[in-house]
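Two quick folds needed for the group meeting slides. Do the first one here.
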Amino acid sequence: MERRTVLRSAVAAAAALTKGGSHLTAQEADHSAFHGGRHTFTVDVALDGMSTQPMAQTRGESFVVDGTIYPEGTLPSGIATNDPNAPGGIGKIRCRASLLVPASDITTPVFTFVTELYSLPDDSQTIVVDGPGPNLYVTVNRAVLGGTRHFAGVSGEIIEQNLGLNASNACNLRVTFKLTRPDREHH
């Protein structure tokens, strides 16, 4: 799926969730993807191991890591060589996490407890997610806590699949958003 299609899907989610999308063009407001106030879309995320501060190693230590959001299907699985800062991104992610196991443990399914801020396409429009972080090749569900601007008031869940590692020795992820939003007609 190309960058414009995924970005349009995310913007369409925002348009449908704001009940009319007055800030968006008709092309961006593709309402056909919504069914009963719900919208699902998938993106790939490449975390940047070089941005990790501080380098947490033991259980209980916290760290912050940034990354780039790409259209679904962009990133490879397995031990890969993709650059997490390669062109073609449709947004950014910032993660604040605490290790639940030592950093060297790649077998325990849940690796971290993490809060993620997805900026789609930039910091003016965000989705906040919280919950367990998957270890290598594990898939977890996490709660959507809300968002800003066109994503204000959203709830739901994400399904985050750890695809493997990239060139920065951080994770490549596939993230499916399942968003809902209460009717905002009276707002």
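Then this one, please, same format:
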Amino acid sequence: MRYIAVLLVCFTVGFGAQANDNKADTPVATVSFTEQLPEQGNLVLGIYDDGQFGAFGFQLDAMSNGGLTHAFKASGFDGKVKSTEIITAPMGTGLDRIMLVGLGKRDEQKTMLDWQNIGGKAA
């Protein structure tokens, strides 16, 4: 269940330079997990199929005066398990983009493998 909390808490994605002699400036994805909402960059946010946000989703929605709710609804994202949608982060959040990752039904029991597969869609 720890993975569940991490995915719901915050999963940020950034870009750095690849350490390769031929392509030193080629960007590669870097991923970090945090228990605090990032102030910049990109964010992966898990959402259940009932469209409810977790604590960070509610915080982002408040920071953007309902902008996250609007962007979520406008995207048509349904929250089905392992579905993804990238949206432009609403003004006021400091973020660039948000990847919504569908967690499926809130009351449906998921195995660790299920959570790994859901997380794999984000990576």
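Slide caption for protein two: The longest helix spans residues 112-122.
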